[in-house]
Amino acid sequence: MTCAFLRAIRYTEKLYRSSGKRLFLPYLVLNKACLKTETSLKWGLQEPKKTVRSGCNIGVTRKTIWTQGPSSLKAKEDSSKQVSVHRSQSGETAISTSQKVKEAGRDFTYLIVVLIGIGVTGGLFYTIFKELFSSFSPNKIYGKALEKCRSHPEVVSVFGEPVKGYGEVTRRGRRQHVSFIEYVKDGLKYLRVKFYIEGSEPGKQGTVHVEVKENPGSGECDFQYIFVEVESYPRRTIVVEDNRFQDN
Amino acid sequence: MEEYAREPCPWRIVDDCGGAFTMGTIGGGIFQAIKGFRNSPVGVNHRLRGSLTAIKTRAPQLGGSFAVWGGLFSMIDCSMVQVRGKEDPWNSITSGALTGAILAARNGPVAMVGSAAMGGILLALIEGAGILLTRFASAQFLNGESSVC
């Protein structure tokens, strides 16, 4: 039994060295090798039992054969390694207070950096959501006013059909930001937006002034006025909407 | 003056592409110089040669991929402006998402969706930063003029 066992071990060592595969293989290979040696040596009726037993045996002693090399030497090395590991673990706790402080300091600075990053990112996300999704932001007012201008027949007749809108020219040439002023009067929030429109008629440009008052009841915004100033020589002003004197 | 008299949009594509290439090449050059310096054998001559080789091989690659990103983003942005008819932060965010999706098209639809999400979020952050900056910059001018007519 033991010589078959040792033979199985040598067989797996050979296989392991030749293939150089992962360490999980020896278990399966060992099982197969054991089966092979058992059947080759003893053709009796007791084969299944012995294979099972040797399989269990091999499972128990797996740890000592886990690495390369002869098993007996390896067992001694492993035990010595285990002793040395225990020693180093007990020795580490005595000297690691300064290391612990250093590591805690490092972790703390990392935590601060992460928190700052999260704060900045959260602030940016909040800004962009408020700008794009809340109904009282200049961007939404710009969109709604542009829609109203586009559907107004006089504006369409002056400027030509696809009316384009844009905001202030920034340094890079992108014109995404509309200029606006927000103020509070009598406890209500007002918002004034100014943007430019252009149509397909060449050379005709217009400036649109919009003022919006926040309705305290529904939280929505009421358009106070929408004026379109056409930049031709006799300056024309097209009134798209004028509700300034309605609620007074 | 004269450069704002014409429409920014078609010319902006070339502008953005070149700007992105420059950013990628310079940034990649610095990065690869340090990396090549560190991954070379000991000795200043070896290290300098190693960093020069790293710059010569890798920096144009990074510049090229940045240029592709920038050029594609600007093209989609200008197309959206033309189609929608208004210039909006929404254009930038959607352009970023579409650019990310197109550039990950080789890796299948799931990777496209992930890359689109990343591109959109990145552009949303950049737009948010731009909005904050313009508001702070204009808020400084408005300090004396807050009277309402």
Domains counted in the coordinates of chain B: how many? 2
The major pleated sheet of chain B works out as: none
Q: Strand percentage of chain B, roughly?
A: under 5%
Low-confidence stretches of chain B: 144-149
Strand content of chain A: 15-25%
Order of helices and strands of chain A: HHHHHHEEEEEE
Assembly level: heterodimer
Mean pLDDT of chain A: 71
Number of helices of chain A: 6
Which descriptor suits the 3D outline of chain A? elongated
Provide the gyration radius of chain A in Å: 41 Å
| Percent of residues in helices of chain B | over 70%
CATH architecture of the domain at 138-242 in chain A: Roll
The CATH topology of the domain at 138-242 in chain A turns out to be: Nuclear Transport Factor 2, Chain: A
Mean pLDDT of chain B: 85
**Assigned CATH superfamily of the domain at 138-242 in chain A:** Mitochondrial import inner membrane translocase subunit Tim21
Q: Give the radius of gyration of chain B.
A: 21 Å
- Put simply, the count of helices of chain B is 5
- State the helical fraction of chain A: 40-55%
Largest interface: A-B, 32 and 28 residues
